[in-house]
């Protein structure tokens, strides 16, 4: 399962989603722009309040990092 914690106006969030789309992976998007509870979840998941945060099979990736995404997808 892939989850992406993001906001609509974030360029790096768009890049993560586009990269996964090109690779043919499905994912769940959690938009954290409005919900205070979701922002708290991002902090619990990543230890930070920044987006994007991508969670892939238990691996947490902060920001847009193709190498880390690829590693997590190989598991």
UniProtKB/TrEMBL annotation:
Domain Glutaredoxin: 2-61
Signal peptide, first to last residue: none
A GO BP annotation: cell redox homeostasis
InterPro entries associated with the record: Glutaredoxin, Grx-like_ET, Thioredoxin-like_sf
GO molecular function, a single term: electron transfer activity
Gene3D superfamilies (UniProt xref): Glutaredoxin (3.40.30.10)
Name of the featured protein: Glutaredoxin-like protein, YruB-family
Organism annotation: Clostridium cavendishii DSM 21758
Lineage, broadest ranks: Bacteria, Bacillati, Bacillota, Clostridia, Eubacteriales
């Amino acid at each position: 399962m892939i989850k992406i914690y993001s906001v609509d106006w974030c360029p790096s969030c768009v890049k993560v989603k586009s990269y996964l789309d090109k690779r043919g992976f499905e994912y769940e998007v959690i938009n954290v722009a409005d919900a205070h509870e979701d922002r708290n979840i991002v902090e619990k998941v990543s230890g930070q309040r920044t987006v994007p945060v991508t969670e892939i099979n238990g691996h947490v990736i902060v920001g847009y990092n193709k190498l880390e995404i690829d590693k997590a997808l190989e598991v």
